[in-house]
Design a protein that fits this description.
Layout lengths: L12 H20 L3 E2 L5 E3 H7 L5 H6 L1 E4 L5 E4 L4 H10 L10 E10 L11 E10 L4 H17 L6 E6 L3 H15 L8 H9 L14 H4 L10 H16 L4 E3 L11 E8 L10 E7 L3 H4 L7 E7 H10 L12 E4 L3 H15 L5 E3 L6 H10 L4 E4 L2 H5 L2 E6 L5 E5 L3 H7 L2
Parallel strand pairs: 1-5, 7-8, 12-13, 12-14
Antiparallel strand pairs: 2-4, 3-4, 5-6, 6-11, 7-9, 9-10, 10-11, 14-15, 15-16
Helix pairs in contact: 1-5, 1-11, 5-9
Bound molecules: adenosine-5'-triphosphate and magnesium ion.
Length: 421
């Protein structure tokens, strides 16, 4: 037997219900906010991720699926969605479109070579949004509140937005200096990864999962004390808008995010469910005002986030949302002989094209077994076709809730069913 690759899983059965529910709820809400759908390739040139996500990030240094294709090109399965969207924005000159800013949403599989565990896979799904071209704090707040509302709408309580700012370049340089000075005497007590990060990208140390509970990190200086006036005012404005929008937020100066491209606002959406272990972050994002320019486009301020669908599936399962995501069938059509089945085939098609969810027997089961099958899939109305009645132009309809049975003229059957559901 051939088995699935490590860190992947098949989505079917009730998982499939959750998966579709999450994605469709997200796209519905994103459309209310007037974001447009974008789909970019699942593989891109490796250079794209090296230049955007960053050589020193965990994702690029340890987690990418890189390969050389048959034409000897270096390609990478995308580990996240932003890089591809930004590449597309530049390549398709979206900055020249009349409707600005460009507001996009996406959903699809991502690939990271991680150690698989609860809520952490090698193939997983993210949905996310990116707004390209707006620098106002109100835009940061809109983007964050969109994520917050989507999670809330799924019935997940206790969502907190942990928020921080990385400030502008000047604030960051000042902070970096202070942080390095503070960490230097302690560096041998941190994990080997952090000892490397100390040389390459010291801010990353604050994001370390291994060291996150150590006093060294807890007592580290906060960036909030190193912001220049402009960065501080900007951050205060974002928070003011979040308050207006009823978003529950918490300042957390240890949030720096794992990717290289962020500046100013950075945030994570977390919940306190024990089932998720160290995978309790549902979504994360921030502002990245330099990325478009770094990739060769015009200077364009951007902000966005991505949420993990797989973790949301775990939560919805835990919250037992199954019964609320209905997949009940509207009508079950019963037929046992050839003549009845011919009528059934046509009736089922007509009902389906009346936008009803309809099922019938294709296993040659007897009437009794068909009643049971209809019960199991919670069919609401049962249409019982019977040769004798059909010859008189009559069809029996049974309401499976009230158990009431009526005889209907075959010409009125569709109207009757539609008005009785
Ligand atoms: P973590 O700190 O949990 O490793 P991250 O900082 O690597 O997360 P992002 O790159 O910001 O995560 O991705 C945003 C969201 O995507 C995460 O909050 C999570 O919900 C989801 N996610 C990231 N990596 C995985 C994975 N390997 N398996 C499942 N979901 C993931
Ligand atoms: Mg990670």
């Amino acid at each position: 037997m051939i088995i699935k690759p490590k860190g992947t899983y098949d989505i079917y059965g009730s998982d499939a219900k959750y998966y579709n529910y999450i994605n469709s709820l997200f796209s519905t809400i994103a459309e209310y906010y007037n974001y447009k759908f974008i789909r970019t390739p699942i593989f891109e040139s490796s250079e794209l991720f090296h230049r955007t996500v960053g050589e020193t990030s965990d994702i690029v240094s340890k987690e990418t699926y890189d390969f050389v294709d048959r034409g000897e090109r270096n390609v990478t399965l995308r580990p996240e969605g932003t890089a591809g969207v930004v590449r597309s924005y530049i390549e398709n000159k979206m900055y020249g479109e009349v409707n600005q800013p460009i507001k996009l949403y996406y959903s699809g599989p991502m690939y990271r070579y991680e150690r698989p565990q609860a809520g952490r896979y090698r193939e997983f799904t993210q949905f996310g949004v990116e707004v390209l071209g707006s620098d106002l704090p109100i835009q940061d707040a809109e983007v964050i509140s969109l994520a917050y509302r989507v999670l809330e709408e799924m019935g997940i309580d206790n969502i907190t937005v942990k928020i921080n700012t990385l400030g502008d370049a000047e604030s960051r340089v000042n902070y970096r200096e202070a942080l390095v000075k503070y960490l230097e005497p302690h560096i041998n007590n941190l994990c080997p990864d952090c000892q490397n990060r100390f040389k390459t990208n010291p801010l990353r140390i604050l994001d370390c999962k291994a060291d996150k509970d150590s006093d060294i990190l807890k007592n580290a200086p906060s960036i909030l004390d190193y912001l220049n006036e402009e960065s501080k005012n900007r951050f205060d404005k974002v928070l003011e808008y979040l308050t207006i929008l009823d978003v529950d937020y918490e300042l957390d100066s240890n949030i720096v995010r794992g990717l290289d491209y962020y500046n100013h606002t950075v945030f994570e959406l977390v919940t306190d469910m024990p089932e998720l272990g160290n995978a309790s972050t549902l979504g994360a994002g921030g502002r990245y005002n330099n990325l478009v320019e770094n990739l060769g486009g015009p200077s364009t301020p951007c902000v966005g986030w991505a949420c993990g669908v797989d973790r949301l599936m775990i939560i919805l399962k835990e919250l037992n949302k199954d019964s609320e995501i209905t997949d009940n069938v509207d009508v079950y059509v019963m037929a046992v002989n050839d003549e009845e089945r011919l009528t059934a085939a046509r009736l089922v098609q007509d009902l389906r094209w009346s936008e009803l969810k309809v099922e019938y027997d294709t296993l040659d089961r007897g009437l009794k077994a068909q009643f049971k099958a209809a019960d199991r899939i919670n069919a609401r109305l049962l249409v019982i076709l019977n040769s004798e009645e059909l010859n008189k132009g009559i069809i029996t309809v049974k309401d499976n809730l009230t158990k009431e049975e009526v005889k209907i003229d075959e010409n009125e059957i569709i109207d009757y069913i539609i008005s009785n559901l």
